[in-house]
Amino acid sequence: MLRVAAGDDTMTAAKANLPRRLARASPVNRWSQRVTQQSNALDLEPGVFTRTPIEMARSLQRSAERSTRRKTSPFRSAMSMLTFYENRAGRSLPIGRKRAIRQAKEELRKLYKKTS
Fold first, then answer.
1. Could you give phi then psi for residue 10, rounded to 5 degrees?
2. Which pTM does this prediction carry?
């Protein structure tokens, strides 16, 4: 992390009001990326969030049903991972991908015969 001298103390770049691009952590240090890649609840297939909505839903369903480490139902685990991705990556996703994520949620509900 970038450190800036301020008198006798040192502080992080964010506290020194430097531009965000200088204060931003490297991509390796993003905790949300680590969660989707190394989640203790689901082992996701590579590229799951770049697929079509039905493929995304089916992949999450397979991952949730195969997992022995999840703490809740397969539906809730799959929906939770989809919601987590939507909330974390949502700000930088194009509108078309956001729409695909919402559609994947609907497809997941259909696969598990849940109503919204």
1. -115, 150
2. 0.66
